[in-house]
Amino acid sequence: QVQLVESGGGLVQAGGSLRLSCAASGRTFSSSAMGWFRQAPGKEREFVAAISCSGIRAYYPDSVKGRFTISRDNAKNTLYLQLNNLKPEDTAKYYCTKGVVNWGQGTQVTVSS
Question: Could you tell me which residues come within 8 angstroms of residue 86 by beta carbon, excluding any fewer than 6 positions away?
Answer without folding.
Answer: 12, 14, 15, 16, 17, 18, 67, 109, 111
